[in-house]
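ingest -> validate -> predict -> emit
validate: passed (alphabet ok, no gaps, 236 aa)
predict: started
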Amino acid sequence: MTTTEGGFHATVLTLYPEMFPGPLGVSLAGKALQDGAWSLETVQIRDFATDRHRMVDDTPAGGGAGMVMKADVLARAVDHVADGRPKLYMSPRGKPLSQVRVRELAAGPGAIFLCGRFEGVDERLIEARQFEEVSIGDYILSGGETAAIVVLDAIVRLLPGVMGNALSGETESFETGLLEHPHYTKPPEWEGRRIPDVLLSGNHGTIDKWRRAEAERLTEERRPDLWQAYRASLKK
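emit:
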């Protein structure tokens, strides 16, 4: 467990606390964790089981394959750490994570992350403890831990002082409703491919227009859903 006074405080409820901090312990997130810009606490769900076998799951009501994590055990774990922070359950049926939601979470005091395993968790726990279900994509993972790491990485990089250049976060994909424009660096020619002349012109107005046009082109080509939403926003 890594904690600090103030800043963004993350609590992860998991059967595998050894998975943390994992990637969050290196690069920007790791330095921010070391510097105290955010804190991380892991809670072993199994510690809240009351039987001698420390069971956290049982067979699904109505029959079916797999096992379901028990509401009573999870509730004791959740109640142990609940303090008003948002409670997020990593779930493929949840609302897709967006950069808007990431920014909202980064502006808050922290969050509690519930990482499911097996077939998921008892629905009554989600309802009774008012969990927000969050998905990071239309695919299935073996558990919620990897998803929690993804969400935390997205949040931490937006915390004050974590990125060296605050403007970096304002020009990335999704921040303006568009995908990000292409990037280039030295040398000016590589394997017969040249940096677009406009980027070497020194005319920042022209460069900005080129970048906007490229962002629009890529968004229209690759993410028609985003493109439609962007076009609709321009008409308001």
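Strands lie at 8-14, 38-44, 57-58, 68-69, 87-96, 110-114, 132-135, 189-190, 193-194.
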